[in-house]
Amino acid sequence: MFSKVAMASRYILGLMFTIFGANGVMMAFMGHGFIPMPPQPPLMVTIMTGFIATGYLLTLAMLCELIAGLLLLSGVYVNAAIVLLGPIIVNILGIHFFAEPSGIPLALFTAVLYVILVASRWSDFKQLVKR
Q: How far apart are CA 32 and CA 8, in angstroms?
């Protein structure tokens, strides 16, 4: 049963990050994506302006999302995708908890899927936290 939940989590995360990563890559390179951006509050405008002003950070994050999403969907190098997505999901949670609270439900949903996926592959990662 847990393996089916983990597989569903992998596919849902893969779809989410492939779609939003591809949209972000398009935004980074062309100035607009295929998903329209709703009006943002001033604090989010400041944050996104900072990401864009670096000249690379938004593009890098979106490419990591896209690559990780494709890896999750393909089932190849899933552990690498999990490692790539860890800091991105922490950042998503931080932004929504501290700057844009309306996105907290989706951020928590994403984090729960991520935890399920990590738990399903814990034997591969437990060496990282071993003393």
A: 30
To the nearest 10°, report the CA torsion of 81, 123, 127, 90: 40
Please give the model's pTM, rounded to 2 decimal places. 0.90
Helix (H) or strand (E) holding 44: helix 42-53
Residue ranges of the domains in the chain?
2-129
- DSSP reduced 3-state for 119: helix
Nearest to 17 by CA among 98, 106, 96: 106
DSSP string, 34-80: SSPPPP--HHHHHHHHHHHHTSSHHHHHHHHHHHHHHHHHHTSSHHH
60-106: per-residue pLDDT in tens?
999 999 999 999 999 999 999 999 999 999 999 999 999 889 999 99
CA distance 130 to 76: 26
3-state secondary structure of 77: coil
Tokens representing 77 are 């190098």
